[in-house]
Write a structure and sequence with these properties.
The chain has a four-stranded mixed beta sheet. It has 677 residues and is mainly α. Helices cover 60% and strands 4% of the residues. Strand 1 and strand 2 form a beta hairpin. It is elongated and about 130 Å long. The protein has 29 helices and six strands.
C-alpha cells in the first residue's frame, strides 16, 4: 500500500468532487449521473493502493446485506428466459452494488464534506424548482396542461421524492443554525420545494412528505422541552388528519352534488328547435352533471367546426377525441350541449379544449384541487364501467391486480430477473385486460415487483437487505437518514423506485451516504454541542453567565447545566462544574470515565481541573477563551498565574506548617477503608 499524505488528500478530494457531481446530476441527466458514478468508481480503484478499505468494510459488515439486494438480481437469472432484459436490468441497478461498497469502504466525509454535498443537492433542487415554475409559465416550451410535463428532465414522481428530501434537509439546517439569515434562506428553500410539488400535482410526493413529517414529529416528540410547543404539535397531529378528511369530503361533495342547472324534464328542445339526446345509462359526471344528457350532437359539431381549426371528429393535441372533450367541458360548465353553448365559449376555452382540457376547473386551476378532482373522476368512471386506459390512478389499480395474479401463480420461485415485463404482457392477454396496449405496464409497486421476480424467499431477503442495515447502524436516530429512509420506503408502495437508473442511483446514493459515507459520530457530537450552546443562550435572560454544558454517555445526554454564579452566589458554579455535579449524582459515582463533556466555551482553569478530576474521556468546546474575553469573561490571567512561581502570583501566597500537615497524609496512607479517586 502506498503511503503518501498528499495522495490521500488528493483522493479524498476526488471522492468529494465525484459525490458532488453525482448529487448534482441525479435530478437532471442520465448521462451525467452515469459519468459521475464512473468517476467515483475509478477514484475508488486508485484508492485500493492507498486506503485500507478492508478495515472500513470490517467496521460496516451490514453493507453486504444491502448489496444482497443487487445479488438477488444476479442469482435469479437462473430462473430467467429473457436474458437481454435481465442484463439491461442489472445495468440499470448497478448503483445498488457500486455505491454501498464505495461509501462503506472509503474514508467517511467530515462535517465540511457533508455540508458541501448537502448544499449542492439543495442547490440542484432549487434549480429544479425554478425550472418547474418556468415550465408552468410556458417560458421553457409548451408543457401543455399536463402537470407532469413541468418536470423537464426526469420523471415527475422521482423528482418529487428528491424535493421531499430537500425539504427535510432544509428543516435540519434550520434547526442546526442559529443565524437568522440562514434560517430564512433554508425556510424559503423548503417552501420552494413544497410549492414545486404542488405545481407538479404529485399527490404521491405530498402524501409521503406529510406522512414522514408526522412520523418524525412523533419520534422526536419526547425531545421537545417546551410544553407549549408540545401542545401545539399534538394539536397539529390531531387537526391535520381532520383537515385532510374535510378537504377530501369537500372535493367529493363538489364532484357529486353541485347546484343542478338542468330542469327535471327531458322533453325540452334547443333554441334552434332540435331535440336533446339523453343517454340515461351513462353514469359519467363532470362537476356533478351527467355528461351525456341534454346533448344536441349535430348542433355542437357544426358550431365547433365554425369556431376551431381542429375538426370535431379529430383528436386533440394530447391524442383524445375532440367531440368527447367538448361535451365534457360544456357539462362541467353546467351548460346544455348545443350550438348556443359552443358559441358562448371564449377563445381561451376553445384553445384549452383543443389541448385536451375536459373541465372548466382545469382551465385556470392547475393545482391540487384539479388533480384530486381528476382522481375522483377516474375512480367514479372505473367503477361505472369506464376504460382505465390513460387514467393514472385507475391504471395503477389494474397494474396492482395484474401483479398480484402473477405473484400468486409464481409464489415460491418468482418469474426471474428478466421475465417480469414479459409476465405482465402475458397476464394482460390472459385476463383480456381493458387496458389499451400502450398503457400495459408493470405494477407501480416495488415490493410487488420484487415478489413477482424472486418469489417469497427472495422477497424476504430483499426486506432483510433493506431494513437490517438500518437496525444494526441505528439509522433511525439520525434525522437525515430517517427522513430519507421513510421517503424511500413509502415511495416503493406506489412506485417502482429501483427500476430506473435515476431511481436506483437516488436511493442507493443517499442510503449509502447517510448510513456509511458521513461520519455520524461527528453529527451526534454537533447535536450535543448545539444543546450546550442553546443552554448558554437560554441562560442569558436570567442574568447568569452565557455558558452551558452537557455530559454524554453512550451517545445519550445524562446531565445538562448552565452557569449559576449570580443566581447561587457561588463563584464556583460554572456550567462545567454544575454539570459534573449533576452527572455524578445521576450516575451515583465520582468517576465519570466513559463520559464526554460538551461545553459552549473553552473551560477556565478551575473547570478544566474539575474535568480532569472527574476523569472524563473527552472534552469538546465551541467558543475559545479569546472570544470569552471579548465578552468580558477573561481568565487568561489565571492561566498566566499558574505558570508563575508562587511568590510571583498576584494573590500573596506562602507555605506554612508543612511538618504538621504531613501527619494527615500519613494517616490516609495507613487507613484501610480508603476509597481512592
Amino acid at each position: 500500500m502506498i503511503q503518501s499524505k498528499a495522495l490521500e488528500r488528493s483522493l479524498k478530494l476526488m471522492f468529494l468532487i465525484a459525490t458532488v457531481l453525482l448529487v448534482a446530476s441525479v435530478p437532471f441527466s442520465y448521462f451525467a449521473t452515469s459519468n459521475a458514478i464512473m468517476l467515483l468508481s475509478l477514484t475508488w480503484l486508485i484508492g485500493l493502493f492507498v486506503f485500507p478499505y478492508k478495515n472500513r468494510l470490517k467496521a460496516n459488515p451490514e453493507v453486504w446485506l444491502f448489496v444482497m439486494i443487487y445479488l438477488l438480481h444476479i442469482i435469479w437469472i437462473w430462473n430467467t428466459s429473457n436474458y437481454d432484459y435481465a442484463l439491461e436490468d442489472l445495468r440499470k441497478k448497478l448503483p445498488l452494488l457500486v455505491l454501498p461498497v464505495i461509501y462503506a469502504s472509503i474514508p467517511s466525509f467530515n462535517r465540511t464534506g457533508r455540508d458541501i454535498i448537502l448544499h449542492i443537492f439543495l442547490l440542484a433542487m432549487i434549480v429544479s424548482g425554478i425550472f418547474i415554475f418556468l415550465s408552468r409559465a410556458g417560458i421553457m416550451g409548451d408543457a401543455g396542461s399536463n402537470a407532469r410535463n413541468f418536470s423537464p428532465f426526469i420523471n415527475h414522481i422521482r423528482l418529487s421524492l428528491m424535493l421531499s428530501l430537500g425539504i427535510f434537509i432544509a428543516v435540519w439546517y434550520i434547526r442546526k443554525t442559529s443565524r437568522l439569515n440562514q434560517k430564512l434562506i433554508y425556510s424559503l428553500s423548503a417552501i420552494l420545494f413544497l410549492a414545486s410539488m404542488v405545481v407538479l400535482q404529485v399527490l404521491t410526493g405530498l402524501i409521503i412528505t406529510s406522512l414522514v413529517a408526522i412520523i418524525l414529529l412523533i419520534l422526536h416528540f419526547s425531545r421537545f422541552k417546551n410544553n407549549l410547543l408540545k401542545r401545539s404539535i399534538l394539536t397539529g397531529l390531531i387537526a391535520l388528519p381532520l383537515a385532510l378528511g374535510l378537504y377530501l369530503y369537500s372535493q367529493i361533495h363538489a364532484f357529486y352534488i353541485p347546484e343542478d342547472p338542468y330542469p327535471k324534464t327531458f322533453d325540452i328542445k334547443t333554441n334552434q328547435g332540435n331535440p336533446y339526446k339523453h343517454n340515461l345509462h351513462s353514469e359519467q359526471l363532470e362537476n356533478g352533471n351527467y355528461v351525456y344528457r341534454f346533448v344536441s350532437f349535430n348542433e355542437i359539431e357544426n358550431a365547433w367546426n365554425e369556431r376551431s381549426q381542429i375538426n370535431y371528429d379529430s383528436q386533440s393535441k394530447n391524442g383524445y377525441e375532440i367531440k368527447h372533450i367538448l361535451i365534457r367541458f360544456l357539462t362541467s360548465k353546467g351548460e346544455f350541449k348545443d350550438a348556443e353553448a359552443v358559441q358562448k365559449l371564449s377563445k381561451q376555452e376553445i384553445r384549452a379544449i383543443e389541448s385536451g382540457c375536459t373541465n372548466v376547473r382545469f382551465l385556470d386551476k392547475k393545482g391540487l384541487n384539479s388533480r384530486l378532482y381528476a382522481l375522483i373522476w377516474q375512480i367514479h368512471m372505473y367503477y361505472h364501467g369506464g376504460n382505465p386506459s390513460g387514467k393514472s390512478l385507475i391504471q395503477r389499480i389494474v397494474y396492482l391486480e395484474t401483479g398480484w395474479h402473477i405473484a400468486r401463480d409464481n409464489l415460491l420461485t418468482g418469474v426471474g430477473t428478466g421475465d417480469v415485463n414479459d409476465s405482465f404482457m402475458h397476464q394482460y392477454r390472459e385476463d383480456n385486460s381493458p387496458l389499451q396496449p400502450q398503457y400495459r405496464r408493470r405494477t407501480h409497486n416495488q415490493y410487488v415487483t420484487i415478489l413477482i421476480a424472486f418469489g417469497v424467499f427472495g422477497f424476504f431477503l430483499f426486506l432483510l437487505g433493506w431494513f437490517m442495515p438500518v437496525i444494526k447502524k441505528h439509522g433511525m436516530k439520525n434525522f437525515l437518514f430517517a427522513s430519507f429512509f421513510l421517503i424511500a420506503t413509502f415511495s416503493m408502495l406506489n412506485e417502482d423506485s429501483l427500476e430506473t437508473l435515476t431511481g436506483a442511483t437516488f436511493i442507493s446514493l443517499f442510503y449509502s451516504l447517510f448510513l456509511w459515507g458521513i461520519n455520524h459520530k461527528t453529527m451526534f457530537q454537533e447535536k450535543h454541542m448545539q444543546k450546550a450552546i442553546q443552554l448558554a443562550k437560554d441562560n442569558i435572560p436570567s442574568g447568569n453567565g452565557p455558558f452551558g454544558a452537557v455530559i454524554v454517555k453512550d451517545g445519550k445526554i445524562i446531565a445538562e447545566a448552565s452557569n449559576s454564579v449570580t443566581r447561587n452566589n457561588d463563584p464556583t458554579a460554572h456550567a462545567e462544574v454544575n454539570v459534573i455535579r449533576k452527572a455524578s449524582e445521576n450516575l451515583k459515582t465520582f468517576d465519570l470515565s466513559g463520559c464526554e463533556i460538551y461545553s459552549s466555551c473553552e473551560p477556565c482553569p478551575m473547570c478544566l481541573g474539575a474535568i480532569y478530576w472527574a476523569r472524563l474521556d473527552k472534552l469538546y468546546f465551541a467558543s475559545d477563551r479569546k472570544e470569552a474575553a471579548e465578552a468580558g469573561f477573561s481568565d487568561e490571567f489565571i492561566y498566566d498565574e499558574l505558570g508563575k512561581n508562587i511568590r510571583e502570583r498576584s494573590i500573596p501566597t506562602r507555605q506554612m506548617m508543612q511538618d504538621n500537615a504531613k501527619s494527615v497524609f500519613t494517616s490516609w496512607k495507613d487507613f484501610e477503608n480508603k476509597i481512592m479517586y
